Description:
Low-confidence stretches: 1-8
Strand content: 15-25%
Largest sheet: 4 strands, mixed
Number of domains: 1
Number of strands: 4
Radius of gyration: 20 Å
Amino acid sequence: MMRQAIHNKSHNNSGLMQLNRMQKDNIKHKTSVDLVVPDKTNCVLLHMDCIDLLRTIPDKSIQLILIDPPYNLDLAYWDTFENYIGWASKWLEESYRVLSDNGSMVVFGGTQFQDVKSGDLTEIIYHCRHKTKFRLVNTIVWYYKNGMSAHRYFANRHEEAIWLTKTDKYYFDLDSVRVPYGKRNCKKH
């Protein structure tokens, strides 16, 4: 059986075409944000409770929060929570407070956990939508070749992350993360 490539119809999307024209004509969209690259950045590694740390940070002072919280799988003492969403709501609340108005927050996790008690992204998304002012911009899928082994369900070959912001005015540079599309990315079937 021969398969034919289907062209990407999103290239004919009138909204996308208008955004591309605006970019070509150097016209900014109403939600665009200028990026000011700082002369110096600091990277600090601290080993402490994230909620305690967040409480020491000034309001609206952080541009990006990247978090990979425990998943409540009861694999170690630090990965066991009686009320996972109760705990997560505390760091989500503090994160919202310290995040700049045009900043972003990315939360890694998964949706493979099987009950409400576990800390999967489904529960965090629900909480963010119904109990916080965060906006869910995207669900991001991080694909990797070697996943965890499994015997009672399909083995994961990816991990999910959610991208949250405070407003629709956030910085995003698609070209800096774009993977070029071409013959080398195509597989013959």
